[in-house]
Amino acid sequence: MQIAVLIPCFNEEKAIAMVVDGFRAVLPDAAIYVYDNNSTDQTCAVALAAGATVRAEPLQGKGNVLRRMFADVEADLYLLVDGDGTYDAASAPQMIEKLIAERLDMVVGSRLASKSEDAFRTGHHFGNRLLTGTVSTIFGNRFHDMLSGYRVFSRRFVKSFPAVSRGFETETELAVHALSLRLPVAELETPYGARPMGSVSKLHTYRDGVRISWMIVQLFREERPMAFFSLLFVLLFTASLLLGIPLLVEFYKTGLVPRLPTALLATGIMLLAFLSLAAGLILDSVTRGRQENKRLAYLAQPPLPDPPR
Length: 309
Hints:
By secondary structure, this protein is of the alpha/beta class. It has two domains: 3-223, Spore Coat Polysaccharide Biosynthesis Protein SpsA, Chain A, CATH 3.90.550.10; 225-299. Helix content is 53%, strand content 11%. The protein contains ten helices and seven strands. A seven-stranded mixed beta sheet has the order 3-2-1-4-6-5-7, sandwiched between helices. The protein starts with a strand and ends in a 10-residue tail after the last helix. The relative contact order is 0.12.
């Protein structure tokens, strides 16, 4: 089968040759694509010298690069890896073998076995577990390292994936796409190392953490609207009762409404609560139609062939 190695890059001249050479060694028949995202160093020249096919995506952000790669490249299997030299190229054949043998649509290279503080800092480890746990609670517990940048996909997954994110939150979108369509996926523990000397991480811990969290909220609203708006209904309904019950008690005792603005506020919040519930019911039907369309796009692509016996 035709395998495409997809490497999004931004200022990775220190690591990109090592990444290209590593995957060329373990996947000699694969096509290796480096997609440059407005690098200001010699990333493109180094990647070309290493033998990769170099293309460009002018819209800044990993999500934009991923959308372009998935649209442009034709293959049977796709391997996505960051260009920073932290992921283990030697694990690629095992990930591909697992995907083919078990007829999966995505295999994620988990970094959780890494003990290197330089590679996987404690704060990033905690944030990863927190965000992955949140997604697991909402959409299903099938991933332990949702934010890994090392993955193998089937063509069906790639060509049915509606990439809309712009930055590092694209990994969250990949995970939720698989969970919402209940696609067959798996994880495989792989070594994870530190960046080469002179290479700088592009991840901004707090800013990107906030963006990933906001992406989870958006996907919760879009993919689970009944649950999202039911939760909002419960919060608004409770707030309205807390404001309104003392007024009802006072009205029962005296026949008077002593705090008219509070009564109006409680009434307005109760109306918003039931409007939220109605929105959830309507959007749940819309989401079902969207999921059916994504499923049809998925089925329009040919399945993986049976593994050789």
